[in-house]
Specification:
This protein is of the alpha+beta class. The protein contains twelve helices and ten strands. It folds into three domains: 151 residues, Glutamine synthetase/guanido kinase, catalytic domain (Creatine Kinase, Chain A, domain 2, 2-Layer Sandwich), CATH 3.30.590.10; 82 residues; 92 residues, no CATH class. The chain has an eight-stranded antiparallel beta sheet with strand order 2-3-4-5-1-8-10-9. Strands 6-7 form a two-stranded antiparallel sheet.
């Protein structure tokens, strides 16, 4: 497993606000009960079919049997959003992931297959195309459960129809600073989309990161879902950019102080918690977007937000579990960030 998925290191469109785009496709295989009703034997039969299908694809995927993976490695997969919380602790689960972690599949989560594509920046059509290519390749070798009336059939009503959940992670520090994030959350919900904190809940997300996604896939085409999401995301990016410009024009000293104070703390501190690190990195990311700082790159800061999480730091220390000295974790995290800020890479 790489230090962090290399898709993070690739510049993306509108990356000053749009951090990443993610498309997830829920699929069920014909002839099997839904995952909650599968016997152990049926689970294994389904896994064999899926693995045989993946083996015939042109791209290679690593096979991760979660039962054979140490708890620390499972936590890392969870921190990278490659698996869900329930999936991480359930027995007999299987993950497939490509080299740069831009494509992955959970087998027997809520649905038989959850195919995920992720890219840097705002690139809904390209990310959907990546997920669709994987989906179509698999469909040549397995039979999906589907109907003309309802589309793809899955365990939850929210995942029938196209079975698609598209999302964009946005960095919205200016809307948070000027007190308008609550209004943005409400407006997005009124448009039929879901917006939630990526590291936290409601309007208190660490690093000011928010994920916007569709809630319904039934009765809508993939094109309709992508178009509706793009419209709302574009509006939110416009609000954020206007708020940043207004802050620079009216509160420049305050903004500069906040950015350089964050840089000063992370450049010199010897211990820092994950919560504080992600919050300060979010401020530095805003400073780079506003051209108050010329280094490191946005991609390096985004990667640091992931690497600052506890399991990733424990991996560096080659330790795991609650017995790990939290002060040592905080010290190592601070050292990692100091070096990355100084060298401009992770």
């Amino acid at each position: 497993m790489s230090a962090v998925g290399t898709w993070y290191s690739r510049p993306g469109a509108d990356s000053d606000v749009a951090v990443s785009t993610r498309v997830r496709l829920a699929r069920s295989l014909l002839g099997f009960p839904f995952p909650l009703m599968l016997s152990r034997e049926q689970e294994e039969q389904l896994q064999v079919q899926v693995l045989e299908a993946f083996a015939r694809l042109p791209d290679s995927f690593d096979i991760v049997y979660l039962d054979r993976v140490p708890p620390l490695e499972r936590k890392i997969l969870l921190e990278r959003n490659l698996i869900s919380q329930e999936f991480s602790v359930s027995p007999n689960k299987l993950l497939l992931v490509n080299q740069d972690e831009s494509l992955s599949a959970m087998v027997n989560e809520e649905d038989h297959l959850r195919l995920v594509a992720i890219r840097s920046g705002l690139c809904l059509e390209e990310t959907l195309a990546g997920a669709a290519t994987l989906d179509n390749g698999l469909e040549e070798h397995v039979h999906y459960a589907a109907s003309i009336e309802w589309g793809y059939l899955n365990a939850s009503i929210h995942n029938i129809g196209t079975g698609m959940r598209a999302s964009v992670m946005l960095h919205l520090p200016a809307l948070v600073m000027d007190g308008n994030i609550g209004w943005a959350l409400k407006r997005t919900s009124q448009m039929g989309l879901q917006i939630k904190g990526y590291w936290g809940e409601g309007d208190n997300s660490l690093g000011d990161m928010y994920q916007v996604s569709n809630q319904v896939s039934l009765g809508l085409s993939e094109k309709d879902i992508i178009g509706g999401l793009r419209g709302v995301v574009t509006d939110l990016m416009g609000y954020e950019r206007n708020a940043r410009e207004e802050m620079l024009n009216g509160r420049r000293m305050e903004v500069e102080d906040r950015v350089f104070r964050a840089l000063g703390v992370l450049s010199h501190c010897r211990m820092v918690s994950s919560k504080e690190a992600i919050g300060l990195l979010g401020v530095i990311r805003m400073g780079i977007s506003l051209r108050l700082l010329d280094r490191p790159s946005l991609e390096v800061v985004t990667a640091l937000m992931v690497l600052s999480q506890k399991a990733h730091v424990q991996k560096m220390l080659d330790t795991e579990g609650d017995e790990t000295d939290n002060k040592l974790v905080d010290y190592t995290r601070a050292k990692l960030i100091r070096r990355a800020l100084e060298e401009g890479n992770v």
